[in-house]
Amino acid sequence: MKSILLKGNIHTDTRGKLLFNNNFDVSAVKRIYFIENRDTKFIRGWQGHKIEQRWFSAVKGSFLIKLIKIDDWEVPSVGLISNEIRIESKILDVLYVPNGYISSIQAIEEGSKLLVMADYLVDEIEDEYRFELNYFN
Length: 137
Fold this sequence. Notes:
12 strands, Jelly Rolls, mainly beta, 5-stranded antiparallel beta sheet, 0% helix
């Protein structure tokens, strides 16, 4: 399965704005947390999961998220191609990342905040893989 950007929407009337995402089924989510990178130059990555699924939504600012589908979890090919997705807090888009992917996350605007949702609790399984930022070409 590929990553999917679940498009959100916005409704504005005299009362204000309502951001919503009626395409996002949260029933698989077991935990949530926020990521705030120290600045816009810092890139958090590469990290991913063979089993876990993730969902990302920018709640403040915007992020560039790069995803790579891993071919071998012990020694991945260095030439794997990344897919870039930009998500912004202006609308409630949710980026679905299925299992089998690693990600790098970079804030585009200072003070950006990213909501991360996962389908496993902390320590429920051992499924965290990390690779050096310059490992992939």
